[in-house]
UniProtKB/TrEMBL annotation:
UniProt cofactor(s): biotin
InterPro entries reported in the protein's UniProt record: ATP-grasp (IPR011761), BC-like_N (IPR005481), Biotin_BS (IPR001882), Biotin_carboxylase_complex (IPR050856), Biotin_carboxylation_dom (IPR011764), Biotin_COase_C (IPR005482), Biotin_lipoyl (IPR000089), CPAse_ATP-bd (IPR005479)
Protein species of origin: Alkalicaulis satelles
Protein name: Biotin/lipoyl-binding protein
Domain ATP-grasp: 125-322
Domain Lipoyl-binding: 575-650
Pfam (any one): CPSase_L_D2
Length: 651
C-alpha cells in the first residue's frame, strides 16, 4: 500500500479559471498556493489569487506555460511540494509528469505511463481493441504518406474524419465528405496538429453522422479502486469544440449508463490509471457507442459532474495524489438533478467564431446572485489576449430537472454579462433556449450545419429598437460629447451597432426624456436613474433596467436581458471606409501559418491566400475578387498584428 504523503504547498502550472479554481482549493485547505505567469498575465486574476507567484517567461505559451524547465525552477524556488497541471498546456505531457516526479515533487495527475499510453490515439485504440472496447472503423499506422492515407480513406469510405494522433479539443481534426477535398483537408489538419502539438501524425476514422458525444468521468486511486461517475453529454459542438455540456445526458438510460461506465472502467484499468480521467464515446441513434479517446486530465466540463454527484473532483485529485483511498464506492454514484455548463468565449459566433481581445469593461460574477456557479479567471479591468485560448468563463446551472436548469442558466447569463469585449453570450442564450436543445435532440453536427445555413442561433439578429432608444437617451439627453446645441431639440442621430448602421430620429420632449423614431416606429424613453452601470429608464410607459457603460473609446455598451449591443457614432469616431478588396489584412493578432501565393499569381474570388492561427483557431483569409497578387508581406511563422497588411492585390 502506498504511504500517504501530505501536500503543504502546490504550484499550479496553468492560468485562467482552472488555475483560480485549484489555487482557491489549496488556500481553503491550508496549503500555500503558488502561481506562475507569463508577461501577458502579470496582473491576471490567478496571480492575484495566489500566495506566491513566479514569472516564467514572455507571452507565447511555448516560452512560458509550456516551458518545463522554467516551471520546475519556479517549484524549487518557492519550495512547492506538488504541481497541479490544470488542463491544456502540459497536463497530458508524460515527459513533464516524469520530470516532476523525478524532482521529488508530487504530481497531481495520472501516472506518466498512462498518459503516454493514451496520448497516442492510434496506439491507445490498438491496445483497447484487444480488451473488447467498441471502436469506430478506421485506420492508424506508420505509413503517413499522402498516397497511403488517400488509399486508406477510399477503403474506409466517405464521409470520414482526419484526426491528429496527438490532438485534442477539435484541433488537428477535419471532416471530409468528398475525395476531392481530402488533400487540402489533410494538409490543413497536419499543419494545425504540428502547430498545436508538435506532431503532425494523423489517423482516419469513419464519420458517424447524427451522433452524440457522450463521455464518462472515471476516477481511480493508487489502491486499485476505479469508479465511473456518470456521463456528460457534450454534443453541442462547433468545429469539434465543445460549447455546452450537461449531466446526465438526455439520451442515456440507467442501463446504458451502466454499460458505458463498465467499459470506461475497463479502459482505465487497461493502463493502470490513477486520478481523474475521462473516457469519451460517440453514441449513435441506435444506442451503440464507440470509444473515441481517453483524456488523462481533469476536463473543462467537470463542474456538471460535481454538481450532479455532489463531489469535489479537484479535492479528490489532491487526495489521490497524496496516496489516499477514494472516499466513495460505486453504489454511491447516483445522479441527482441536472446540471448544464456553457463556455463563455471571447469570440464572434456570427463571424466564424473569430477570436476577440481587449479590456473587459465590466464583468461581475457575483451579479448572478449565486443562482449559478461561475468559474472564471477574469473580472472587470482584466485583459483578454489573443495569446491563449478564448474561453473567459464557465457558467453552470444546477436544478432538480433539465428544464429548470435551462431556465436558471438563462437567468444567470442575463444577470452577469461580460461587456467591453465581444463574447458568445447572446449566441449561448439563443442556443440553450432553442427547441432543438430543449428537446435534448442535439447532435455534434447540428451547430456546424446551422452555421453554414445561417439558421438557429446563427441567424442574424437586428439591433433592438430598445437599444437604439437607450443609446439616444444616453448620448443625446445625458451628455456624451454628442449633445446638440440647446436650441436644437429635433435631429437625426446616426449610429453604428454591431456592424449595422442605424439612424434614429430624436425629439427632446422634456428633461432627460425623448421620442425616438426608427424604422417608422416611435418610442418614448425617459431616464429614471443611472448608478454605476445600472441604468433605470421608462420605455413606452414601462419601467425597465439594463446595464450601460461608455468605454474610453467612446463606444456605448448596453446589456439587455438577452442581447449585448455596442453602439457608436461613426462621424465622431472616424469610422474607416469599407474594407479595400485590393488588400488582405490580419483580422486579429496571430501567427501566419501558411502563405499560398506569390507575386504574379492569378487568384479568383474565394481563393485562400493566407492561413492564420490565433487563440488555437485556424483562419483562412481569402481573395474578395479576381485579381493578380501584387505583393506578399507575410511568411509562415511570422507574427502579425491585427490589421497588418499581408497581401496586396491588383484588381
Amino acid at each position: 500500500m502506498t504511504a500517504r504523503r501530505r501536500i503543504r504547498s502546490v504550484l499550479v502550472a496553468n492560468r485562467g479559471e482552472i488555475a483560480v479554481r485549484v489555487l482557491r482549493h489549496a488556500k481553503n485547505n491550508q496549503m500555500r498556493a503558488i502561481a506562475v505567469y507569463s508577461d501577458a498575465d502579470a496582473d491576471a486574476m490567478h496571480v492575484r489569487e495566489a500566495d506566491m507567484a513566479v514569472r516564467i517567461g514572455p507571452a507565447p505559451a511555448a516560452q512560458s506555460y509550456l516551458d518545463m524547465d522554467a516551471i520546475l525552477a519556479a517549484a524549487r524556488a518557492t519550495g512547492a511540494d506538488a504541481i497541479h497541471p490544470g488542463y491544456g498546456f502540459l497536463s497530458e505531457n508524460a515527459g513533464f509528469a516524469r520530470a516532476v516526479i523525478e524532482a521529488g515533487l508530487i504530481w497531481i495527475g495520472p501516472p506518466p505511463d498512462a498518459i503516454e499510453a493514451m496520448g497516442d490515439k492510434a496506439r491507445a485504440k490498438a491496445l483497447l481493441a484487444q480488451s473488447g472496447v467498441p471502436m469506430i472503423p478506421g485506420w492508424q499506422g506508420e505509413d503517413q504518406s499522402d498516397a497511403n492515407l488517400a488509399r486508406q480513406a477510399e477503403t474506409i469510405g466517405y464521409p470520414l474524419l482526419i484526426k491528429a494522433v496527438a490532438g485534442g479539443g477539435g484541433r488537428g481534426m477535419r471532416a471530409v465528405h468528398d475525395p476531392a477535398e481530402f488533400a487540402d483537408a489533410l494538409a490543413s489538419a497536419r499543419r494545425e496538429a504540428k502547430s498545436a502539438f508538435g506532431d503532425d501524425t494523423v489517423m482516419l476514422e469513419k464519420l458517424i453522422e447524427r451522433a452524440r458525444h457522450v463521455e464518462v468521468q472515471v476516477f481511480a486511486d493508487m489502491h486499485g479502486n476505479v469508479l465511473h461517475i456518470g456521463e456528460r453529454d457534450c454534443s453541442a459542438q462547433r468545429r469539434r469544440q465543445k460549447v455546452v455540456e450537461e449531466a446526465p445526458s438526455p439520451a442515456v438510460s440507467p442501463v446504458l449508463r451502466a454499460a458505458m461506465g463498465e467499459v470506461a472502467v475497463r479502459v482505465a484499468q487497461a493502463v493502470n490509471y490513477a486520478g481523474a480521467g475521462t473516457v469519451e464515446f460517440l453514441l449513435d441513434d441506435s444506442g451503440a457507442f464507440y470509444f473515441l479517446e481517453m483524456n488523462t486530465r481533469l476536463q473543462v466540463e467537470h463542474p456538471v459532474t460535481e454538481e450532479v454527484y455532489g463531489m469535489d473532483l479537484v479535492g479528490w485529485q489532491f487526495l489521490a495524489a497524496e496516496g489516499g483511498a477514494l472516499p466513495a464506492t460505486q453504489d454511491q454514484m447516483e445522479p441527482h438533478g441536472h446540471a448544464i455548463e456553457v463556455r463563455l468565449y471571447a469570440e464572434d459566433p456570427l463571424d466564424g467564431f473569430k477570436p476577440q481581445s481587449g479590456e473587459i469593461a465590466w464583468f461581475d460574477p457575483m451579479a448572478a446572485d449565486r443562482q449559478v456557479r461561475i468559474d472564471t479567471g477574469f473580472e472587470t479591468g482584466d485583459v483578454i489576449s489573443t495569446a491563449y485560448d478564448a474561453m473567459a468563463a464557465k457558467i453552470i446551472a444546477y436544478a432538480p430537472n433539465r428544464d429548470e436548469a435551462i431556465d436558471l442558466l438563462l437567468a444567470g447569463l442575463a444577470k452577469a454579462p461580460m461587456m467591453g469585449v465581444k463574447t458568445n453570450r447572446d449566441f449561448l442564450m439563443r442556443l440553450i433556449d432553442s427547441q432543438a436543445f430543449r428537446s435534448g435532440a442535439l447532435t455534434i453536427d447540428d451547430l456546424d450545419a446551422w452555421a453554414g445555413a445561417g439558421e438557429g442561433p446563427f441567424a442574424a439578429q437586428p439591433v433592438p429598437h430598445e437599444a437604439a432608444a437607450i443609446a439616444a437617451l444616453v448620448m443625446a439627453a445625458h451628455g456624451s460629447g454628442v449633445v446638440r446645441s440647446g436650441s436644437v431639440t429635433r435631429f437625426a442621430l446616426p449610429l453604428e451597432a454591431d456592424g449595422e448602421t442605424l439612424e434614429p430620429f430624436v425629439e427632446q420632449t422634456g428633461p432627460d426624456a425623448l421620442k425616438v423614431t426608427l424604422d417608422g416606429q416611435s418610442h418614448r424613453i425617459a431616464l429614471v436613474d443611472w448608478r454605476g452601470v445600472h441604468l433605470d429608464y421608462r420605455l413606452d410607459g414601462v419601467d425597465r433596467r439594463c446595464l450601460a457603460l461608455r468605454g474610453e473609446d467612446g463606444v456605448l455598451h448596453i446589456a439587455l436581458s438577452d442581447r449585448i449591443v455596442s453602439l457608436r457614432e461613426p462621424a465622431l469616431l472616424g469610422r474607416a471606409d469599407a474594407a479595400d478588396p485590393s488588400t488582405v489584412r490580419a483580422p486579429v493578432s496571430g501567427a501566419v501559418a501558411a502563405v499560398h501565393v506569390k507575386p504574379g499569381d492569378e487568384v479568383k474570388a474565394g481563393d485562400v491566400l493566407v492561413v492564420m492561427e490565433a487563440m488555437k483557431m485556424e483562419m483562412r483569409l481569402t481573395a474578395a475578387a479576381d485579381a493578380v497578387v501584387a505583393a506578399v508581406h507575410a511568411a509562415p511563422g511570422q507574427q502579425a498584428a491585427g490589421g497588418a497588411l499581408l497581401i496586396e492585390l491588383k484588381l
